[in-house]
């Protein structure tokens, strides 16, 4: 089997590549290294530094592949309200390029990594796959729109496909110097610098966090199985529904840090309570949670400590700056 992974230098893509290679699978990967890092790329990957929006190159690099796993994305939920062009282009736009190349190359299977941002605000919890989507930010709209087109193109071209919806993934290799996303990694980086974590709103917004190991297990089931065409799966633990305040305490305890968070105004359109049910994955993919949140945080702390704390990099332009743009971003407070 030969698998094409977009975003192979990123957090999710690089872990998936490592696991597949360990099982004897041939991996071709692309990444523009805007969010990914070259050090993450397994030496056995046929790696191409390229933007997924380059359709000609996607057609070229995908030749001979059996499966496409599309993970590449500028996955900035909150920032997408203030940089809608850039974030949606690097979410919906690049997906169209990868999808078109997959159809042109007669790829057998296409697996798309969506986001729980697709669900937005719902009247009931947890989010289940059958719910109508109600995204509250352009990033979530772009993710869901891409899903709809994937279904159309794959059905038209007889391509087997699945859509995976991870919870908030955590673990080693997650970027800790991106001020716009990855709340756990941002907090760890700041605390290692002796700085208090910054929390939006009252910190009582709640999430579930998924260890990368558990997420990879579910994705691999879909890569190797051929009896689940068209199915959508929420993937990742749903047992530990914690507030951002609780998350900060878990990290502070691991680092033995004297915690006094800095509270700033809530971010616009942020969903208060968001958790997905993993019941379908348990029932059909035989998914079981192996890694709890405290263990995930310890692994992240150990990994980030190895390289040391890093200065935060404001690599993305903010397109819309007004009184609703978070001051943390405008004034580079993080």
From TrEMBL:
Pfam families: Epimerase (PF01370). Gene3D superfamilies: NAD(P)-binding Rossmann-like Domain (3.40.50.720). It comes from the Bacteria. Residues 3-236 form the NAD-dependent epimerase/dehydratase domain. SUPFAM superfamilies: NAD(P)-binding Rossmann-fold domains (SSF51735). Belongs to the NAD(P)-dependent epimerase/dehydratase family. This is NAD-dependent epimerase/dehydratase family protein. It comes from Sellimonas intestinalis.
């Amino acid at each position: 089997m030969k698998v094409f992974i977009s975003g192979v230098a990123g957090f999710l893509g690089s872990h998936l590549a490592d696991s597949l290679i360990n099982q004897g699978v041939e991996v071709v990967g692309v990444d523009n290294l805007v969010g990914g890092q070259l050090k993450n790329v397994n030496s056995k990957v046929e790696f191409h530094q390229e933007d997924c929006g380059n359709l000609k190159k996607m057609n070229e690099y995908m030749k001979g592949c059996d499966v496409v796993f599309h993970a590449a994305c500028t996955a900035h939920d909150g920032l997408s309200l203030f940089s809608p062009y850039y974030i949606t282009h690097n979410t919906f736009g690049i997906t169209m390029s990868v999808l078109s190349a997959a159809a042109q190359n007669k790829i057998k299977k296409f697996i798309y990594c969506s986001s729980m941002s697709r669900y937005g605000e719902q009247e009931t919890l947890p989010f289940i796959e059958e719910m109508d989507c109600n995204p509250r930010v352009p990033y979530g709209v772009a993710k869901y729109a891409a899903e709809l087109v994937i279904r159309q193109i794959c059905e038209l071209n007889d391509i087997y496909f699945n859509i995976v919806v991870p919870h908030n993934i955590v673990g080693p290799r997650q970027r800790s110097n991106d001020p716009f996303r990855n709340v756990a990694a941002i907090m760890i980086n700041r605390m290692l610098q002796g700085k208090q974590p910054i929390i939006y709103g009252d910190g009582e917004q709640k999430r579930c966090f998924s260890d990368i190991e558990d997420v990879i297990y579910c994705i691999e089931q879909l890569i190797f199985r051929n009896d689940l065409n068209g199915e959508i799966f929420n993937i990742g633990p749903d047992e530990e529904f914690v507030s951002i305040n609780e998350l900060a305490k878990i990290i502070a305890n691991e680092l033995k840090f004297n915690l006094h968070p800095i509270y700033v105004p809530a971010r616009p359109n942020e969903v208060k309570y968001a958790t997905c049910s993993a019941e379908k994955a348990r029932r059909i993919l035989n998914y079981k949670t192996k890694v709890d949140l405290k263990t995930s945080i310890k692994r992240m702390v150990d990994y980030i400590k190895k390289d040391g704390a890093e200065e935060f990099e404001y690599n993305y332009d903010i397109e819309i700056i007004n009184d609703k743009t978070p001051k943390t971003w405008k004034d580079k407070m993080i």
